[in-house]
Design goal:
- With 454 residues, the chain is of the alpha/beta class.
- Helices cover 37% and strands 19% of the residues.
- The chain is built from 17 helices and 18 strands.
- It has helices spanning 10-18, 26-35, 51-62, 79-92, 111-118, 128-136, 153-158, 162-170, 187-196, 209-212, 222-235, 248-260, 274-285, 319-326, 347-356, 395-405, 432-439; strands spanning 41-44, 72-75, 101-104, 123-126, 147-150, 177-182, 201-204, 213-219, 241-244, 265-268, 291-294, 309-312, 336-342, 360-363, 380-385, 413-418, 423-428, 451-453.
- Helix 2 (26-35) runs parallel beside helix 3 (51-62), helix 3 packs across helix 4 (79-92) and helix 6 crosses helix 8.
- The protein is globular, with a radius of gyration of 23 Å.
- The model has no long low-confidence stretch (mean pLDDT 91).
């Protein structure tokens, strides 16, 4: 089934096609005919199944842009996921002018959010704690909300947001559409659903991860783990790798070890400020860094396609966390590999995982075959430009300054990310010095900007 067969506007179909959305994924095909009619929905589906589009389409179709009041509320467990949902929504709404989407998340200054709320918005995307705080201080009114979405509801409950979600739902009109998306359907999810949904349609997309993720487990001492990272990445010829650790201090220690071994690495954990986390995500997703080392704060909400390899440097504390981690690879039906290390003391937990995930294979680390011919380097590096959307810069302006402006070939340019106040451009490494020298002396859309390497 294609999007053109749905009961949505022709302009919306054109916008979807321009974004590369042609055929529906299974979750979209199972849910959209009902959700577009306003029916409540519970959907069990993994990350990467197309659920963001599944819950966004009904929202886009029913929104009244001329009525400047909050008409939809979307809750997510983490800032990263909330920001990514908001970014995806802005793309889906770009055929409709003047739609304001506001994110309300913890870990960022509160007062600027109060100022933004005073100017109203059409859609709020946020984390439960921060949304509830704004409601408590009467900065936010949900009286006109018609659509309530909970994405990755199981993760929100794992983080202790059950009561907050129920309190938020009490601020919402009873006559609304509620859509709940979750990777699992446990008793606490059932209880939450019974409290906030009305006669929902339940759909379940068969979990494909067991069929398409290759899982190998290796027993290693703590001292042996780091020395096997490079070998494993090269053996699978992984262009992009996420390594998960249980603690942020382990992330930093491992990053130092791998950096000394000549590898370009990024880290993401709870000590990083939001700007640093956003930048880290951009630098990894635009292929300028091949390795991201993350704590479990990042195991949900990372919307990155084409992650070839996940390495659990520390064995996950439970099967839920393990599921979320390995879900970073094999997104949207693509194949992937997940490698897990465990120590002798963690043997019983590793065997428990084996009972849950039937496709796990226990292997001897001596069988890891190094491929020294494979270089763990994507050949790109990012440049930073201190100008973005608020300066009226667009991707086409930056591309034009690089090609027509300084003579760079299009093949030397990778992904371009334009944020509100800055931009990032992936450039081939052998062209980096040339670009930094020339572009700092060249106007972009009539203005000089500071440009440096990231």
């Amino acid at each position: 089934m294609t999007f053109s067969q749905l009961n949505i506007s022709k302009d919306f179909v054109k916008n979807l096609e321009s974004l590369g959305y042609i055929n529906l994924t299974p979750i979209q095909e199972l849910s959209l005919n009902s959700s577009l009619k306003g029916k409540d929905l519970i959907a069990r589906a993994k990350t990467g199944s197309g659920k963001t589009v599944a819950f966004s389409l009904p929202l886009v179709e029913k929104l009244r842009a001329k009525e400047f009041k909050v008409q939809a509320l979307l809750l997510a467990p983490t800032r990263e996921l909330a920001n990514q949902i908001a970014q995806n929504l802005r793309l889906l709404f770009r055929h409709i002018h003047n739609v304001k989407i506001l994110t309300l998340c913890g870990g960022v200054p509160f007062k600027p959010q109060v100022v933004s709320l005073s100017h109203q918005a059409h859609i709020i995307v946020g984390t439960p704690g921060r949304v509830l705080k704004h409601l408590g201080e009467k900065n936010l009114s949900l009286d006109f909300v018609e659509t309530f979405v909970l994405d990755e509801a199981d993760k929100m409950l794992d983080m202790g947001f059950f009561d907050d979600i129920e309190k938020i739902s009490n601020f919402l009109p009873k006559d609304r559409q509620t859509m709940l998306f979750s990777a699992t359907y446990t008793d606490d999810i059932k209880l939450l659903a019974s409290n906030i949904l009305c006669n929902p349609l339940f759909i379940e997309v068969e979990n494909e991860e067991k069929n398409i993720i290759k899982q190998d487990f290796y027993e290693l001492s703590d001292s042996e783990k780091a020395q096997n990272i490079k070998k494993i990445i090269r053996s699978f010829e992984a262009k992009s790798t996420i390594i998960f650790c249980n603690q942020k201090i382990t992330c930093e220690k491992l990053a130092d070890i791998l950096f000394e071994d000549g590898l370009d690495v990024l880290t993401m954990h709870s000590d990083l400020e939001q700007k640093q986390r956003d930048e880290t995500l951009i630098l990894f997703s635009n292929s300028t860094y091949p390795i991201l080392i993350a704590s479990d704060v990042a195991s949900r909400g990372l919307d990155i396609d084409d992650v070839d390899l996940v390495i659990n440097y520390d064995l996950a504390l439970n099967s839920k966390i393990h599921t979320h981690r390995i879900g970073r690879t094999a997104r949207a039906g693509k194949g992937g590999v997940a490698i897990s290390f465990y120590t002798k003391d963690e043997q019983s937990r590793a065997f428990e995982f084996k009972e849950i995930f039937n496709d796990i294979e226990f292997k001897d680390s001596k069988t890891i075959r190094d491929n020294s011919n494979f270089e763990i380097d994507l050949g790109l590096r990012a440049i930073f430009i201190n100008g973005g959307k608020k300066h009226k810069l667009r991707k086409i302006d930056i591309l034009g300054s690089l090609t027509a402006g300084i003579g760079l070939h299009k093949d030397d340019i990778g992904k371009i990310d334009v944020l509100d106040f800055c931009s990032y451009v992936a450039i081939k490494k052998d062209k980096l010095d040339f670009v930094l020298d020339r572009l700092n002396k060249t106007k972009i859309k009539g203005k000089y900007y500071n440009i440096y390497e990231k």
